[in-house]
Amino acid sequence: MVNFDNLGFDVTKVNNNFQAIHDGTSWGEGDLKSDDDITISAFSTCLHYAQEVFEGLKAYKTKDGNIQVFRIEENAKRFRDSCKRALIPEVPETLFIDAVKKTVLANKEFIPPRETNGTLYIRPYALGIGYNLGLKPAKKYMFGVLVTPVGSYFESGINPAPFMITDLDRAAPRGTGHVKMGANYAAGLMPNRIAHEHGYADCIYLDSETHTRIDEVGAANFFGITKDGRFVTPSSPSILPSITRRSLMKLAEDKLGMPAECVEIELDDLNHLAEAGACGTAAVITPISKIDFKDKTFQFYSDTEVGPTTKKLYDLLTGIQFGDIEDPYGWITVL
Ligand SMILES: Cc1ncc(COP(=O)(O)O)c(C=O)c1O
To answer: Is residue 329 part of a domain?
Structure first.
């Protein structure tokens, strides 16, 4: 029996993972492996030049014991776009979706039951492998899918958490911030460590061109609820196009009757927000209690309680994801 008590965001060993190889001509069919150790040449481009892309999505167990995934087609599309930017042969959406389904179903017993609020995190990835020395794309590639049961990404879960704005940059406007490449996250390790050392849940990046606007959180997008009742989230060329925030915008408009807009959010605009949060597959929705930046503090709804709109959005989003609420949008695929 798998123990789902106190699930955090760590790895639990499961039964199987999926691996496929591109030999320079086309992607192979791939298959399930019991061992998640992989053997690749130390000359691999993924190791030296970060020729690596990945995805993150989740499988949910419903009250009735069904297994479902959320907006998998969107992850498949984004993965394909990431491959294109990293000069990795594109993984066809059908291969991506079949591999995810196969891997989830091979690890059914690791999907936490509904009442735990836990999920099975799914991590597709693609790597440049083989023998390479100069700065050029690899001749061989690996596509894989890993899964592991998880709880909350931020320890606070749905409770508000403090964030700080970092003065380090993660991505540039014409760089790769809008692509899910491992390289972006390497740049984020140090600011994340500094935020933790100072008692914050994570850091928030400013746009790297002017350092006056909110970009995103280290592993999630940013959103706010303005005092006049709008859902706002940064418009920026250097942030990941989050599937969660797109879903929240739709829910805010359709279910809460709120205008939902991608806008440039200047630092001073934070004073006009009644509520703020981090959103993403891993973070789900994490309310932000306050944001510190140099000698300024921007305070939001409460240090201890979730704001009313954030709570409604959380209930709607997770309700659809876990199958408690009917999905009117075709976002759910039952496996
Ligand atoms: C940097 C970054 N921004 C935003 C997100 C949210 O994207 P999504 O909602 O598609 O998971 C993620 C991943 O969770 C991320 O790593």
So the answer is: no
| pLDDT beneath 70, residues of the chain | none
Contact 56, 72 (CB under 8 A): no
List residues bridging with 297 in a β-sheet.
292
* Ligand 1 center to 138 CA (angstroms): 26
Of ligand 1's listed atoms, the one at least distance from the Cα of 188 is 1
Q: State the Cα–Cα distance between residues 213 and 169, nearest whole angstrom.
A: 12
Q: Quote the pLDDT of residue 76.
A: 98
| Torsion angles phi and psi, residue 82, rounded to 5 | -65, -45
Supply the residues annotated as catalytic: 180
Do residue 214 and residue 301 come from a single domain? yes
272 found inside a domain? yes
Which ligand 1 atom is nearest residue 216's CA?
3
55 and 189 co-located in one domain: no
* pLDDT for residue 82: 98
pLDDT value of residue 232: 98
Task: Give DSSP secondary structure letters for 128-153.
Answer: EESS--SSS--SEEEEEEEEEEE--S
Q: Give the number of other CB atoms < 10 A from CB of residue 242.
A: 22
> Which one of 150, 174, 201 terminates a domain?
150
Distance 240 CA to ligand 1 centre (A): 6
pLDDT value at position 154? 86
Does any domain span residue 155? Answer: no
Domain shared by 97 and 180, yes or no? no
- pLDDT at residue 2, as a whole number: 87
* Strand residues in the chain grouped as ranges (E): 17-22, 31-33, 52-54, 57-61, 67-70, 119-129, 140-150, 161-165, 202-206, 214-217, 221-226, 231-234, 260-263, 273-280, 284-293, 296-299, 332-334
